[in-house]
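retry 2 of 3: previous attempt timed out while embedding 9MC. Reduced batch size to 1 and resubmitted. Inputs unchanged:
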Amino acid sequence: MVQHHLTAEVDAVVKQQVAMARLGVGECGTGWQLFAEDGEMRMYRREQEVDGMVVDPLKAVHTVKGITGHEVCHYFFSPQYRYDWETTLEHMNVVETISEDTLVFYQLHKRIWPASQRDVVFWSHIRHLPNDQDRDGPHIWTVVNQSTEHPEYPGCSGKTVRIYLTVCLLCQTIVNPPKDGAPISRNDISCKITYCSVVNPGGWAPASVLRAVYKREYPKFLKRFTAYVINQSKNKPIMF
Ligand SMILES: O=S(=O)(CCO)c1ccc(-c2ccc(C3CCCC3)c([C@H]3C[C@H]3c3ccccn3)c2)cc1
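retry 2 succeeded.
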């Protein structure tokens, strides 16, 4: 089978991003500051600027009852659900289907005053990995989104600012089998979610504005997205 020109990059970036996501906030050096907490959700960021632009890396950890890593990644990756949970989207389309587990997206995000409107082109890859702690446990699932170039979407349309991002959603399913040997139900499962994102906002925007947008939007996004997966999954058979 002829390899797509992105196949090698996808494999390398996924491996690197999964390794990074697996590092706890303690391990990958100091500098992670907790900026939002809500129940089981903890959001950390590192203050980082590139050419005077805020590119603060973000790492969120969350544990959600009643859903699996496969379900979380399925709803995050699949385009048909995106408008249901990504409230900041004005437009989204699949630019290219590289394979059933690798798509290229174009997304136009709603303008967030006073920043100008942003858009992004990224490849998105979904993969499951053997659970190295528990060989016969459910697999780990991940989705990695990485900005990329695409001839149909040159980044110089003038009206909008092109952003660059790397996102990794890493999910580990925890099963607590019922004592009486009953079949596993949604009360016996939970999902440990790690969400990492680095966004370069493209054109300049005031650091205070960007940090305020992230502080407000990321917690909202993760809570809304996980609530969506719970609601979509609750009356369906468990996807391990
Ligand atoms: O995880 S994903 O791949 C999910 C697929 O959609 C992802 C997450 C976040 C973004 C993103 C990147 C930058 C901005 C800012 C930069 C300056 C002004 C707009 C925003 C604005 C819309 C706000 C926002 C921030 C955080 C979370 C959601 N909404 C969003 C894009 C993709």
